[in-house]
Design brief:
80 residues, alpha+beta, single chain, Pemi-like Protein 1, Chain: D
Length: 80
C-alpha cells in the first residue's frame, strides 16, 4: 500500500503526490472520482475507455450458466 500526504490550500485545492499519480496512471487533464464512505474518501481515475473498463464484468454470472454459450444459444433460439 502506498501512502502520501497533501496539504489543502485556502481555495480547497491540493496536489496529488507524484508517486500516487504515477501509481494510478494519472496525467494532466485526467478526471478523478471521489467516493465518501463514512469518514473516509476513496479516489479513483475516471476510465479513459468505458468499453475496456467494463469488459469482463459479470463474468461470474456467465460462468455459473455453464460458460454462457448454451444459455446464449437458447436465448437466441427463443427470439425466432
Amino acid at each position: 500500500m502506498k501512502t502520501a500526504t497533501a496539504r489543502l490550500s485556502s481555495r480547497g485545492q491540493m496536489v496529488i503526490p507524484k508517486e500516487i499519480r504515477q501509481a494510478m496512471g494519472l496525467e494532466a487533464g485526467d478526471t478523478v472520482f471521489f467516493v465518501l464512505e463514512g469518514d473516509s474518501v476513496r479516489m479513483f481515475p475516471k476510465p479513459k475507455d468505458y468499453s475496456e473498463y467494463m469488459y469482463g464484468l459479470g463474468k461470474e454470472v456467465w460462468e455459473a450458466l455453464g460458460g454462457g454459450d448454451e444459455f446464449l444459444a437458447e436465448e437466441r433460439a427463443s427470439w425466432e
